[in-house]
Amino acid sequence: MTADTKPIVTRFAPSPTGYLHIGGARTALFNWLYARRNAAADGSKFLLRIEDTDRARHNEAAVEAILDGLTWLGLDWDGEPLSQFERADRHKQVAHELLKRGKAFKCWLAGEELDKAREEAREKNIRFTSPYRDGGEGEGPYSIRLKAPIEGETIVKDEVQGEVRFPNATSDDVVLLRSDGTPTYMLAVVVDDHDMGVTHVIRGDDHLNNTPKQQQIYEAMGWDVPVFAHIPLIHGNDGKKLSKRHGALGVEAYRDQGFVPEGLMNALLKLGWSHGDDEIITREQALAWFDLGGIGKAPARLDPDKMANTNAHYIEGIADEDFADAIAPFLEKPPSEAQREMITRAAPFLKPRMKLLSEARNAAAFLLLERPFEITGKAAKPLKKDGALGHLAALAQKLETVESWDPATLDLAVQTYAEENGVGFGQVGPPLRAALTAGNPAPTLGETLFALGRDEALARITAAQDSFSA
Asked: Where does the record place the Aminoacyl-tRNA synthetase class I anticodon-binding domain (predicted)?
């Protein structure tokens, strides 16, 4: 770190009113990446603040859900999460400091009187200005308003949106403290960001209109204004604002669908950020490549199919020995030790067939059958054909003598049996597959036999013979 640079400090500041929204998760990811890419070299930080000033809507379970979602995604934060509510006294202190400096004023305008003054300003198409801005005393409780500039423009230099100009004549004097003494969001967020040392505010562009007012508070206090970067919101595939009709909105819903953390992280990263034509971007690559210049100005579109395709890549990357643990939460019941061994052997064949871990319930169903199991319906038809049981018996004898129990050798053994006995594969393969899988989806016969293992495969063949010869 050179003398003229300083560590980057970013923050994620969710409201604890529900789950970790997919848009919030993306915002957290961008902030995490921007800080973590430099952290090893210069001590940059990613901080977490819970904006819990609205106590009526505060939900402690929602706080835990947000923390769990961030942890599952692998987005670690520095220090303890900060509670905005607990900093109310500090917020009030700053409001009164602004009042002392003449940068704010007491305003007794409230209720119907305030509504009437605002309406009159709208009708005349002029800026609403409190009659107490330049002095005067009222009665009873008062709010504290920022004495914002009236003329000229407030210019926000945004790393994503570019230079955005806001005419001061169209902006009210923002309330800092309400008449009941509670600080407003507009004040609290500025004070907290300043006190936390936040250097870069990366957030959704729905906050862009708040930024000139917040910038005015920074300037009134003589504080450094952070770098702003407002990210376009996420829209549905139809181009409309994201809502429940577009599918899962919370991180936990994607986790329950069977996304792996790396898969969802990659999908979130691609919602509004790009690095050339790269689609698969690992965590390590993202940390090396991420910059604010890669964020687009247009709203990102949520494409569930594309997200699932991205996730499929990361499912294939799960180590075979870890695959049983990965899919266990999505199965009807925890697999036995013998079933876990079968799942591990089958992992190389099952992973390419899955986009979501939840698909394991269907993909691994043939492994999880517990003898004795019934073979019914269409699956039973091959076993009822003339000669089918005889072929099964002979195949069992041949398979029992196979020395190398691997997919290629097993496939060859079945093909060789058909050729040696002058029968078509259609007379041998279907009854064998039915005996082994009961009609459940499965990979090739060689892979199926290998995954089941010699003892289980032969036991299933024998059980089918006994069942259909009775």
From this structure: 323-464
**Is 6 labelled as part of a ligand binding site?**
no
Considering Cα of 67, then 70, then 72, then 74, what sign does the dihedral take?
A: negative
Give Cα 13 to chain centroid, integer Å: 16
Strands 45-50 and 9-12 come out as: parallel
- Distance CA(117)–CA(129), nearest Å, equals 8
pTM score of the predicted model = 0.91
State the 10-residue block means of pLDDT for the chain, 470 residues long. Answer: 70 89 95 86 89 78 93 96 95 98 95 84 82 89 95 96 94 94 96 97 96 97 98 89 76 95 97 95 96 94 94 98 98 96 98 97 96 93 93 94 95 95 93 96 97 97 90
Phi, psi of 50 (to 5 degrees): -95, 115
* Distance separating alpha carbons of residues 229 and 225, to the nearest angstrom: 12
Q: Which residues pair with 183 in a beta bridge?
A: 177
Active-site choice (103, 124, 157, 244):
244
Q: What would the DSSP string read from start to end of 290-303? A: --GGGB-SSPEE--
Instruction: Give the pLDDT confidence score for residue 350 in this predicted structure.
Output: 97
174-194 in b/e form (b: 16+ CB < 10 A) is bbbbebeeebbebbbbbbbbb
Q: Is the dihedral of CA 317, 288, 261, 257 positive or negative?
A: negative
H helix runs in 421-453, sequence order: 429-437, 445-452
